[in-house]
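task queued by scheduler; priority normal; single chain, no ligands, no partner chains; default sampling; output format set to structure tokens
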Amino acid sequence: MTDNIKKLDAEGDVAADFLEELLDILDMDGDIDISVEAGRAKVAIVADGPSQDLKRLVGPEGEVLEALQDLTRLAVQSETGEVSRLMLDIADFRAGRRERLAEQAREAVAQVRESGAKVSLPAMNAFERKVVHDVVLEAGLSSESEGEDPQRYVVVLPS
């Protein structure tokens, strides 16, 4: 196991400890899965049964999930002294969101190919923009982010 993977595993362990304490405080049930994907630690809270309780930790548009991810990253940084890029998913929200974004990106690619004009997508967070950029690149077109957070968005460009 490389040093980087060991470091990412350690990040995941610290994050899992933090999140387990949080779940205990909130009196919520959930299992925590730790993995390393695309060069970053990934921590997921998954439901034992129905995930209604956990969905409260996501929020309507994922804003609670984003805040918890930031807090978890800060907990990891406090423990390790290093900035963390870990990804947090709760009740498979990001997995589902990733698929919806990929479909939106594919539709934008088709629209650009058909019209020959650039297409701007709605404002997205960094995770969402990365998903779109990856799908556009895979389709053989290019894209760029424009605007300032929180109104930063992706523009799909003709070839």
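post-processing summary
- The first helix runs from residue 3 to 26.
- The radius of gyration is 18 Å.
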